């Protein structure tokens, strides 16, 4: 069974929405969540993720072990999300061999060319579908 690591910060809205969709859809994977802060972690726990942690070190430890890493695009950028994504966290995510499935956000000074403007709920639905499909591969 593949492991999906959801990483989110600030209020954990994207991470919790992804978790809710994946759990409701019966995604055949092990879900884990790491919040950059306790509020984000709490939101993902409320969404139903049972294996949760908070902070920089859990990201550094778990990113290399994950098969899939999901979250807002800012998890790739050091100091993103108002400084919540530390350089060590961003490095752990980018260096991980895991497939990265990210929700595009035109914040944190990152704008993605070729990505159509959609409501956040649609980005989350598309990301959840990609994660589900990746979990069913092999």
Quick recap:
With 138 residues, this protein is an alpha/beta fold. It is built from 6 helices and 5 strands, in the order βαβαβαβααβα. The protein starts with a strand and ends with a helix.
Structural class designation: alpha/beta
Helix content bin: 40-55%
Order of helices and strands: EHEHEHEHHEH
Shape: globular
- Overall number of strands: 5
Q: Trace the largest sheet across and list its strands.
A: 3-2-1-4-5
Describe the largest sheet: 5 strands, parallel
- β content, as a range? 15-25%
Can you give keywords for this protein?
138 residues, alpha/beta, five-stranded parallel β-sheet, 42% helix
Description:
With 138 residues, the protein is α/β, with parallel strands linked by helices. It is 42% helix and 20% strand. Strands 3-2-1-4-5 form a 5-stranded parallel beta sheet, sandwiched between helices. Helix 2 (38-46) links the parallel strand 2 (29-35) and strand 3 (51-54). The mean pLDDT is 94.
Task: Break the fold down into its secondary structure elements and pairings.
Layout: E1 2-8, H1 13-24, E2 29-35, H2 38-46, E3 51-54, H3 56-62, E4 68-72, H4 80-83, H5 87-95, E5 99-103, H6 120-136
Parallel strand pairs: 1-2, 1-4, 2-3, 4-5
Helix pairs in contact: 1-2, 1-6, 3-5
């Amino acid at each position: 069974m593949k492991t999906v690591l959801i990483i989110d910060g600030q209020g954990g809205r994207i991470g919790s929405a992804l978790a809710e969709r994946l759990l409701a859809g019966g995604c055949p994977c092990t879900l884990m969540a790491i919040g950059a802060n306790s509020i984000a972690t709490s939101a993902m726990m409320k969404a139903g993720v049972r294996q949760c942690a908070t902070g920089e070190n859990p990201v550094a430890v778990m990113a290399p072990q994950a098969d899939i890493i999901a979250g807002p695009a800012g998890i790739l950028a050091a100091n993103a999300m108002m400084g919540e994504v530390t350089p060590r966290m961003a490095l752990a995510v980018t260096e991980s061999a895991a497939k990265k499935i990210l929700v595009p956000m035109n914040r944190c000074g990152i704008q993605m060319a070729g990505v159509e403007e959609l409501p956040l709920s649609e980005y989350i639905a598309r990301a959840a579908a990609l994660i589900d499909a990746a979990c069913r591969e092999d």
